[in-house]
Amino acid sequence: MSEELLNLTLHVWRQDGPNASGRFETYQAKDITTHMSFLEMLDVVNEELIEHGKLPIAFDHDCREGICGTCGMVINGVAHGPQKLTTACQLHMRQFKNGAEIWLEPWRAHGFPIIKDLIVDRTALDRIIQAGGYISIRTGSASEANELPIPKEIADQAMDAAECIGCGACVAACPNASASLFTAAKISHLSLLPQVQAERQDRVRTMVAQMDAESCGACTNHGECEAACPKGV
Fold first, then answer.
1. Helix 180-191 vs helix 152-162: angle between axes, to the nearest 10 degrees?
2. Which of the residues 24, 53, 107, 161 has an alpha carbon 20 to 30 A from that of 143?
């Protein structure tokens, strides 16, 4: 039995730089196998563009294993694409039908200025973490800190919050471009632990203040952030 091949039409946002005007350009993705990842499909398109002397589509990526969070893009109007709890790099082409049209855009948020094409500057999230997403008090040596008993329920809740990979999908999906889910996850995964109770209130104040300084909007309970999060935070 021969493997199914897909021929797709891509409408990709191209923007030469932060201050340049952007536009959609159309490309054909031909003979794409269904077991390819979405980024592998883009690799195929870029190889053809390079062969014809054209600039490849710029998109961010690193681990390609759903861990680093750098691969974020909007696929057909949905952050990370149509498959729930899946990053763009883990999305496979079997989710699309032969002849489909796919629209690709970068994250759209004031706090995420476009660098080029599908790549945005997400350092706003780094600055929110730098404002308070750390432990500055002494917890003793490694062995002493690890000897503190933590109930399994609390440990599980902290680990659930720590699942956040900082991809920014929550910000991109929110009508207000709010980073509340990201910030809350980073606050919660530390504040639940007994070692860091002394700083929990200061952490909230400084991280929320930095979130506001990054021009992130306020939460108005749309719930788009939770729906878009590839880790189910």
1. 150
2. 161
Q: Are residues 77 and 21 located together in one domain of the fold?
A: yes
Co-location of 165 and 74 in the same domain: no
- Side-chain-side CA neighbours of 16 within 13 Å: the count stands at 4
- Give the domain extent around 179: 122-228
- How far apart, in whole angstroms, are the C-alpha atoms of residue 20 and residue 213? 25
Q: What residue type is assigned to position 113 of the chain? A: P
SS3 of residue 180 by DSSP: helix
Q: What end-to-end distance do the CA atoms of the chain give, in Å?
A: 40
Q: At what angle do helices 123-130 and 200-213 cross, to 10 degrees?
A: 150
Q: CA torsion 165→166→170→175, rounded to 10°?
A: -170
pTM of the full predicted structure?
0.91
Same domain, 31 and 67: yes
